[in-house]
Amino acid sequence: MKKLLLYGFAALLCNFARAQQTFPVNGVQDIRPGLYAFTNATIVVSAQQTIPNGTLLVKDRMIESVGPAATIPKGYVVVDLKGKYIYPGLIDAYTTYGLPDAPRQAFAGFTRTVTPVSTKPGAYGWNEAIRPEMNVKSIFHVDATKAEVMKKNGFGAVQSLIHDGIARGTSVVASLGDERDNLVMLNEEAAAHYSFTKGTAATNYPSSLMGSIALIRQTYLDGQWYGSQKEEYNISLAEFNRTQSLPQIFEATDPLSVLRADKVAKEFGKKYIFKTDGDEYRRIDAMKATGSSFIIPLTFPDAFDVEDPLQARKVTYEQLKDWELAPNNPATMEKAGIRFAITSYGLANARDFWTNLRIAIDHGLSEAQALKSLTEIPAEMLGVSDKIGTLAKGKMANFIITSDGLFKKENVIYENWVEGRQYVVSRVSPINLAGSYKLSGDGLAGITLRVSGNPGSYELAVQRSGADSARARGTFTRTGDMVSLYFDLKANPAGNIRLSGYISNTAPVTLSGGAILPDGTSTNWSAVYSGPVPVTNRPEAPKANLTAGPVVYPFAAFGNTELPTAETVLFKNATVWTNEKDGILKNADVLIENGKIKAVGKNLAAGNAKVIDATGKHITAGIVDEHSHIAATGGINEGTQAVTSEVRVGDVLDSEDINLYRQLAGGVTTSHILHGSANPVGGQTMLIKHRWGVLPEQMKFEGADGFIKFALGENVKQSNFNVQAGPNTRFPQSRMGVEQVYVDAFTRAKEYKAARAVKGNHVRRDLELEALVEILDNKRFITCHSYVQSEINMLIHVADSMGFHVNTFTHILEGYKVADKMKAHNIAGSTFSDWWAYKSEVSEAIPYNGKIMNEMGVVTAFNSDDEEMARRLNQEAGKAVTYGHMSEEDALKLVTLNPAKMLHVDNKVGSIKPGKDADLVVWSTDPLSIYAVAEKTYVDGIAYWDYEKDAAKQKALKADEGRIIQKMLEAKNKGAVTQRPTGGGGRRPGYTCDDIEEGSYVVADSYNGMLNKK
Questions:
Q1: Residue 5, pLDDT score
Q2: What is the C-alpha to C-alpha distance for residues 388 and 390, in angstroms, rounded to an integer?
Q3: What is the pTM of this model?
Q4: Secondary element (H or E) of residue 464
Q5: How far apart are alpha carbons 212 and 565 in whole angstroms?
Q6: The domain over range 435-531 is classified in CATH as 2.40.128
Q7: Inter-residue contact 827 to 806 (CB < 8 Å)
Q8: Of 284, 401, 674, 840, whose CB neighbour count within 10 A is largest?
């Protein structure tokens, strides 16, 4: 007892042991070091080193020595920790500890009020989402309440960052001590932080993911320019440059966003540490290939309540797989050899931290890796490994004292020492409360309590004897000397009985306190130890089902466990629509090899090829969709400015979009993914192939020319856009203004090009103008959203006067009026088959438009602009036969060879010719028939779609869904927390030209101003 009192008194003195050199003290200073010797403990120095029966010496806030049992200097308070463990204090690498809550702007409907540049006073940058000048050290303040929660979980230090904006400024590493703010700082500038999320910035731009990426790229370029110029002072750029030497941490919510950010990093010679949402397992090889380190959470999704079959249908396959596989993520990363830290950030409740960490260990994460990820790795990442992370002489005295191995379920964290100061989590006590107890008190007679287990994980069984005999299980919680019990015998008296009290005696152990009975009355109670719990041969509780299905690529319904590969295939006796001078060949053969068409003809030799009897089948080139908005994420419009030529759809490709697979089922093999039509000059487009299951970069059509989206009409001027939200204030507001936007943009582009051409120039690189210069140099080509004759004439005139060329007018439902001018200017037309009357701009549309343009010699195509229509573009082509009496060969070219010509890839796709890509479709009958079914679709000689295999896939998918649902039901029956299915989870919004996304909102159809939440 004397030793314990000395120990407590010394710990109290430690509160005053820190010399405060810069702060005056009102009174007499009593500065003495805190000297402690922790002996006979199992000391886990690091994940690689453990000292049995070791001694840890602490002097004030530092570790004096750590090693085997040794002579203890005089003056040290000796604490005998025989049977106990000492571990390094844990480090949370991603928190907002010590910071005020970030302000959040309320969403009150969509508004078009424009804030084009920052209104923030001071010499800052133009965009408020770029705020590298923000630093946590200037606003950090110790929060004893939040620190206590974290210390209970064993944390002794944290990184704290501002969680708001794209460039978020710098973070600090601070201990969780209770001293002044200036005394807990371990690294006042630990890292620079970034994300793709604009946060609370008032500036409109960016409103899309591709806009965020463009802004980051432009900021890097601006920083390079700023570093060698003397024209202006810019706090934001100066701070951006200054912080480039710090660790760079990027928050990316999913694996594809990690790859997007990593691409930016490699472009500018950076290496990010990625903070993610814990989904790396979905693309683990790609994550490893980045060569980056990660900070991962333990935010595993709760099981869904799927007892109701109707409700269960709301849960997507992606959600089911994520619930099953997410707990494997830490182990998967360890197996892949990826360096990662673990954070508690994102957990709704702090007590879930240890629960989820042990779940991760149950799923294969090693205890050594778990310890490294909570100590050494975050310390190294954040530049504080000389102070914390392991137990060594000269390091800070941050350590925890535990009852057992840190990761065992029954372990109890007794104390958390932060900078040499004691924080008691659970009092160190030799008393084990396991045993049988006779309960007494009014209304409690005849009840026996049986407490089993170990400190930290007690279990309670309750039995009432006599006429009202009953049994029940309850809860037993101990905090220091305090206890609380809760049980319901479901008999007289029926209802919950709640006991709270304390250990009032230790020999025999006696518990006593106050009780509340089911009828609400209060009484006193006591329980005296009567012996050990009788041993029963109960069967062991069944262990959780940890067997998990495989990851699929992409991580969506109909994904593959292994990606298909190219085959050598000979199709025999088919009707082959060549789209070449040979026309339609009857009873012909097609041989594909190494992803290319090798031969077309009759009686071809098979060799080692797989032979497919195509008798009665039709084979065509794969369908090419000139105008699509699938397979993109984070918004299809960057409509905040009139000219956004710097944004790139290729930056936001979504290889997980189910529409890629569905459209393969309609024979589509190539799609041109366009920016929307919210502004006169939109973003750069991307031509992709439907390679189902590959990564976004691997979807891109190799060697294709670059295109860009322009737009005319109501969508651009937006004067009638969503009038309920107030007037639109973004220029232009009229069709005359649209014309001036083009004239101004290309005038600036010409001036920029001339200035950049001057030898030794110091002109700032401008991504917006560079894209326009590419148009002037015929290195990038325009596809323009258009409807009415007058505007089409206007843009042709502007192009002539400014020296650029329009490659394609898309939609162009009045193309029949200007087909002669289009022919004279070598402009193609990509239109709809028979759309009309859906808005005023199309009031003069006719179903013969495609036929007339084609007869005038204009390269003409039919496009979808719609994820569903793209699945039947073969039928859209057939309408040209119905309305215009086009030949079947010419009609098919509207969705194959002609769009390939528009996109300058007709040398690779669009027809069946030796040497071209083996992008083919095997149809059940005439491809222009409404009864035609795409039985097989090949891209680069790979069968990404097979009608028969799809039937097997659907069956396997249902079986896998059923298997996971059974696991969820088992988890619920064992007491797992569940969530209600809400529907729509994991489903991606389907974009059209005029969808504008802000946050989680999509404003649909800019003409009628309808607001939809997606």
A1: 35
A2: 6
A3: 0.89
A4: strand 459-464
A5: 35
A6: yes
A7: yes
A8: 674
